[in-house]
Amino acid sequence: MNQAIRNSWIVAIALFALLFGSISYVQFFAVDSLNANPNNNRQLLKTFCGNRGPILVDGQAIAESVPTNTDCKFQRKYNDPLLYAGLTGFFSRFSGQSGIEYAMREQLTGTSDDALFDRIAQTFTGKQPQGRSVELTIDANIQKLAYDMIPDGVDGSIVVMNPKTGAIIAMVSKPSYDTNLLASHDEKAVNAAMASLVGVPGINLYGSKAYKGLYSPGSVFKLVDTAAALESGKYNKDSILPNPSPMTFPGITYTLPNYANGQCAIRDKASFAFALENSCNTPFASIALDLGQDAMTAQANKFGFNDDSVYFPDRVVDSRFPGSQGVLDAPGLAQSAIGQKDVLASPLQIAMMTAAIANGGQQMTPNLVKTVRTPDLKTVSSLTPEVLRQSTTPEIAAQITDWMVSVVDNGIASAAAVPGVEVAAKTGTAELGLNESGTMLNNAWFTGFAPANDPEVVVSIVMPGVDVATGAQLTSPNASKLFKAVLNK
C-alpha cells in the first residue's frame, strides 16, 4: 500500500515537473520562435493591438498607443506626423514597421531580453502588459525650424548634430507624409493610403532620406581630398596646388572645368585656402591623381564611406566612394575627387564627416535615442557617447578647420556667418544634368560647424535637383539660422 502511494506521488511529481517545465519552456525559452511563426495569429494581434510604449521628444509623445473600442484594444497615434515621419517611421498591422518603430521594436513592446523580469512581474501581478518609452535626442524647436526651411514641394534634407556626442539634434526631410494613415485598423484604408503614398515623387516611407537617401556630394567631398593630401605627407599648409582651368587629359577631348563665374580663373596656381574658399575643382582633382585611387578610398573610408554597419539605431545607408566602377581612369578619378561621377553620400554621412573634423579628427557614433524607460519611469539605458573611428589626426583636423573658417570669412559660404561666432564650413554643388526645359539642375549642399574653436553644433543640408548656380546660394543662409538657434538656446 505504502509503495503504491509512493509510486503515485512520484508520478504526480513527475507530471507536475513536466507541466511546469513545459510552461516555462513555452513562456520563456520558445517564445522567440513561437512569436516569429507566421501562423501565430494570436501573437500577431498581441503585437499590433498591445499597449506599445511611446516615442518621446522633449518629454512629449510624438507616437503613442491609444485605447480603441474595437477588438484590437490599442491603435498607434502619431502627433505632428509630417514633422517626425522620417524618424518614427510607421507601425501598421497591414504594412509592417519602419524607422524607430522597427529599430526599437523590442523595447517599445517590452519584449527585449532585459525586460524578462518585467514580463514575469506583469504576469504574476495581472497588470496589462506595456512597452517601454523611447525618448529621442531631438530638440523639438530646432526640428520645427529645420523642417520649415525646406519649401513645400522641394526635395531636401537637413541634419543637425552634436559633434562631441554624436547626438542628433534635428533630422528632417521632405516630402513627408501622415503616418496615421498607415496606423488605421481599416485594412482597405491602409492599403489605399500605401498605394497613394508610394507614388509621391521623392518620398521614402522607410526612414528619413537624411540617412536613407544618397546624393552626389559635389564639393563638400573636397574635405576628404584635403585630409588625404595632408595625411599623405606630400602636402602641408603651405603647399601650392596646380589650378589649370580647365584640366586636360592626354589622348581625350574631355576637360574638367573650374566654376566659370567664380574667382578660380584668376590664378593658375592656388593655396589650399584659396582653392577651398572659391571651391576650385582642378586643384583637388590634381591631388587625387597624384595620390591615386587607393589613397583616396582609404581616406574616404576613415570618414565612414563604404561602411554598411552603422546603426543609430536604424541602419544608415552606406555612402560610396568611388562607387561601383572599380578601377577608375584619370578623368573618372578627377571627377570623383570633386564629388561627382558615381560618388554618393547621405546627408548624415556628410554631417558625420564634418563632425569628425570639428571633434579633433575623432568621429562619434551617431545616436538618435537619448533614454529608454520602463512604464514606471525607471531608466533602462541612456545615451553614452562612443567613438566610432579616428578619421584624421587632431593637427590635420585643426588645419582643415582653419581653412573652413576662411571659406566663411573670405569665400563662397559667407552667408553662413554668425555675428560674434567663428563658423567653419564648406559648400557644394553637384551637377545632375539638364532637365526637359534645358535648365541645369544641381544638388545644393552645405556642411559646417560652430563655434569653430569649441564646436557645439554641426549642420549639413542638401537640396537635390534644384535650379541654382551654386549650393551656397540656397543653403548657407539657412545654416546660419540654425547655428544661431542652437547656440542661443
TrEMBL record:
InterPro entries: Beta-lactam/transpept (IPR050515), Beta-lactam/transpept-like (IPR012338), PBPA_dimer (IPR054120), PCN-bd_Tpept (IPR001460)
Pfam families in the cross-refs: PBP_dimer_2, Transpeptidase
One annotated GO molecular function: peptidoglycan L,D-transpeptidase activity
Keyword annotations: Transferase
SUPFAM superfamilies the UniProt entry points to: beta-lactamase/transpeptidase-like
Transferase as UniProt keyword: yes
Any single GO BP term: cell wall organization
Gene3D superfamilies referenced in this protein's UniProt entry, alphabetically: DD-peptidase/beta-lactamase superfamily, Penicillin-binding protein 2a (Domain 2)
Protein name per Swiss-Prot or TrEMBL: Peptidoglycan glycosyltransferase
